[in-house]
Design goal:
Blueprint: H1 12-18, E1 26-30, H2 35-47, E2 52-59, H3 66-79, E3 84-88, H4 98-117, E4 121-123, H5 128-140, H6 145-148, E5 154-156, E6 162-164, H7 172-180, H8 198-211, H9 216-244, E7 245-248, E8 251-255, H10 263-274, H11 285-301, E9 305-309, E10 312-316, E11 320-325
Parallel strand pairs: 1-2, 1-4, 2-3, 4-6
Antiparallel strand pairs: 5-6, 7-8, 8-11, 9-10, 10-11
Helix pairs in contact: 2-7, 5-8, 5-9, 9-10
C-alpha cells in the first residue's frame, strides 16, 4: 500500500492502529472545537473501541465568543451521543506568560473533570504540525536533546493519568479533510493567528522554512531521532546513577569520579539530583551547564568548590559532590 498523501483523510484501518492503546479504557477527549479535535472525536467515535468515550471543552474566557464556541463543540459531541462538559477557567488572568498559564489551567481543569468521571486516559489532538512548531520553539529557546524530542506520544502524568497524542505523526490537512468530506463544521480560534503569541508568529514563517527544506515532516522526524537519542542517554544515566550516586530526599552524594564520564551523562546526573527542588524545573539549561562546567574544571584541578543553584547547595570535595538544600537566606538588617 502506498503511503498516504498529506491531503488524504485518515482511514478506519489507520485510525484503529493509532487508537490501539485506548481499547477498552475510559477516555476523555479534549475538544476545543477546532478542526483537529473535532476530527479526533469523530474518528474515535467511528472507531468505537474505547470502553467509554467522553469529551470536555475548556473555556479560557480570554476573548469574546469563546463560550459560544464551547457550546457548539458540545452540540457536536451530543450529535454523536458523547457526554460533554464545558470547563471554565475562572479568576484573574495574568498579563504576561498567558500561553503557559492557560495551558496549565487547561490541563488542571481536564484532570479534575477526569477524576470526577473516572476516566484514566486523556487524548489530545496534537498533530505533526504542532510537533514541528514545538521543536522550533524549543530550538529558539535553547533547549537540549530532551526538549528537541518535542511532545511525546504517550506520557504518564503526575497524577497517574495516561496522556495519549495519537495524531502526532498526522498532518493537520488530513484531519481537515476528514471533516470536510462529511460537512462537519469547526471553529477557528483567532488567537492562533495573533502575532502577540510566539507560536502564531512562528507559524507565519513556516512556509518560508519549508521552501528551504525545513518542512513540518522533517522537523517531526528530527523529534523522533532526538527521542531515540534521549532514551539511549537516559539508559546510560540510569546505569551511572546506580554506580555513582547515593542518598535520597534531597541529600545526594555523587562520587567525584563521575566527572570523568561524558559531559552529557554528568549533566543529567546533576540535574536529577537537583530535581528534588521544584525550582530546577524552570532552570535554564545554560545555567545548569555553567555549574557542571565549573564543577568539572574544579575536579580536574583537584580543587574544592561550593555553589548554590535552584535553592540547593552543591559542594565538591576531592572524593565526592554533595547536594543538599541550601540554608535559608538571612533577612537583610535595616540600614
Amino acid at each position: 500500500m502506498s503511503a498516504a498523501e498529506p491531503s488524504d483523510p485518515v482511514e478506519p484501518q489507520e485510525a484503529a492502529r493509532l487508537f490501539e492503546p485506548l481499547a477498552g479504557v475510559s477516555v476523555l477527549v479534549a475538544l476545543s472545537g477546532g478542526a483537529d479535535s473535532v476530527a479526533l472525536l469523530w474518528l474515535l467515535w467511528r472507531w468505537g473501541g474505547a470502553g467509554r468515550l467522553i469529551a470536555a471543552t475548556v473555556d479560557h474566557g480570554l476573548r469574546e465568543g469563546s463560550h459560544d464556541e464551547a457550546v457548539r463543540a458540545g452540540a457536536f459531541a451530543a450529535s454523536l451521543d458523547v457526554p460533554h462538559a464545558i470547563l471554565s477557567w475562572r479568576g484573574n488572568k495574568p498579563e504576561t506568560g498567558i500561553e503557559a498559564e492557560a495551558r496549565a489551567a487547561r490541563y488542571a481543569l481536564l484532570e479534575q473533570h477526569m477524576a470526577v468521571e473516572g476516566a484514566g486516559w486523556l487524548v489530545t489532538a496534537h498533530t505533526l504540525d504542532d510537533q514541528a512548531e514545538t521543536v522550533l520553539l524549543r530550538l529558539a529557546a535553547g533547549s537540549g536533546p530532551s526538549g528537541l524530542r518535542g511532545m511525546r506520544r504517550l506520557v504518564k502524568r503526575s497524577n497517574g493519568i495516561m496522556h495519549l497524542r495519537p495524531l502526532l505523526q498526522v498532518p493537520k490537512s488530513r484531519l481537515v479533510k476528514v471533516i470536510q468530506e462529511r460537512g462537519i463544521p469547526w471553529s477557528e480560534d483567532p488567537m492562533n493567528a495573533d502575532p502577540a503569541f510566539a507560536r502564531a508568529r512562528l507559524r507565519r514563517s513556516m512556509d518560508v522554512l519549508a521552501r528551504e527544506g525545513l518542512t513540518n515532516k522533517r522537523l517531526a522526524i528530527l523529534a523522533q531521532r532526538m527521542g531515540r537519542m534521549d532514551e539511549a542517554v537516559e539508559a546510560a544515566v540510569d546505569q551511572a546513577w546506580a554506580r555513582h550516586v547515593s542518598g535520597t530526599g534531597g541529600d545526594f552524594r555523587i562520587a567525584a569520579e563521575a566527572f570523568g564520564l561524558p559531559e552529557e551523562i554528568t549533566l543529567r546526573l546533576l540535574r536529577r539530583a537537583l530535581a528534588s527542588n521544584e525550582d530546577i524545573l524552570s532552570l535554564r539549561l545554560d545555567r545548569l551547564e555553567a555549574l557542571a562546567g565549573a564543577l568539572r574544571d574544579a575536579f580536574h584541578e583537584g580543587a574544592s568548590l561550593v555553589k548554590t543553584l535552584a535553592g540547593m547547595r552543591v559542594a565538591l570535595t576531592r572524593n565526592e559532590l554533595r547536594i543538599t538544600p541550601a540554608p535559608p537566606r538571612r533577612p537583610r538588617s535595616p540600614s
